[in-house]
Amino acid sequence: MNERNYYRIILVDDHEVFRLGLKTLIKRDPELKIVGEAKNGKDLFALLNLVSCDLVILDLLMPEMDGFAILEELSRNHSQVKRLVLSMNTSDSSVQKALRKGIDGFINKEEVAKKILTAIQEVRNNKKFFSNDIQEYILSNFDSLMQNKTLLTKITAREEEVAGLIASGMSNKEVASTLNISNHTVQFHRSNLMRKLNLKNTADLVKFAIRHDLFPK
Question: What is the pTM of this model?
Answer without folding.
Answer: 0.68
